[in-house]
Amino acid sequence: MTEAGSVYGLAMYELAASEGLAEEILQQLDMLLVGFEAEPEFLRLLNTPALSKEERCKILDDSFRGKVHPYVLNFLKILTEKGYIRQYSHCCKAYRQQYYHDNGIISVQAVTAIPLTADQLQRLTRKLKSVTGKNILLQNRVDPSCMGGIRLDYDGKRLDDTISHRLEAVGSLLKNTVL
Fold first, then answer.
1. CA 103 → CA 10, 81, 87, 122, 157, distances in Å?
2. How far apart are CA 130 and CA 140, in angstroms?
3. Which of 39, 91, 96, 121 satisfies CB 3.0 to 4.6 Å to 9 for a cystine?
């Protein structure tokens, strides 16, 4: 995450939280992020020096006025005027991290060889909540290369109990064994 993304994202979060709008604003920021990722040319347009700042802000007004909260629209305008609109995804990441921290939420990615069933996802969520004491946002990503087992990535940690990880450990042990 960039410094500008962190500064602006946290400032936006503080404003939204102070107004009781943190969740609503997060949803709108995420919705825009998906749109910007699908249409990267839009961010390039907002960053082009060929258009004046006023013209770029008018594009934002025409595109989003009445569709997003005024705070979100003004946030986009500020990023555009300051030349930081390309840092939008970093701003969203900083906002989301602070929102999760303040609301006791941990985002967990469970990597498995095959998709987890709804029951398995529910049981894993309950188990992680009991271990961490936090609310869990669980996502399952399928990666056939792990062959079996599960890898959990959360809060900067990795718990790897996949077959591929176990095989790597055995291979390393054998490689370092002197006969």
1. 15, 31, 24, 20, 20
2. 19
3. 91
C-beta contacts of 67-71 below 8 A and 24+ residues apart: 68/28, 68/32, 69/21, 69/24, 69/25, 69/28, 71/12, 71/15, 71/16, 71/19, 71/21, 71/25
Task: Name the domain boundary from 100, 129, 147.
Answer: 100
Q: Tens digit of pLDDT for each residue in 97-130?
A: 999 999 999 999 999 999 999 999 999 999 999 9
* Res 29 pLDDT > 70: yes
Same structural domain for residues 119 and 169? yes
How many percent of the chain have pLDDT more than 70? 99
Could you tell me the residue range of the domain that residue 69 belongs to? 3-100
Distance of alpha carbon 167 from its chain centroid, rounded?
31
> Are 72 and 123 contained in the same domain?
no
Report the number of distinct structural domains present in the chain. 2
Two tokens at 87?
């840092």
The CA radius of gyration of the chain, in Å to the nearest whole number, is 21
Least confident of 16-25, 80-89, 156-165: 156-165
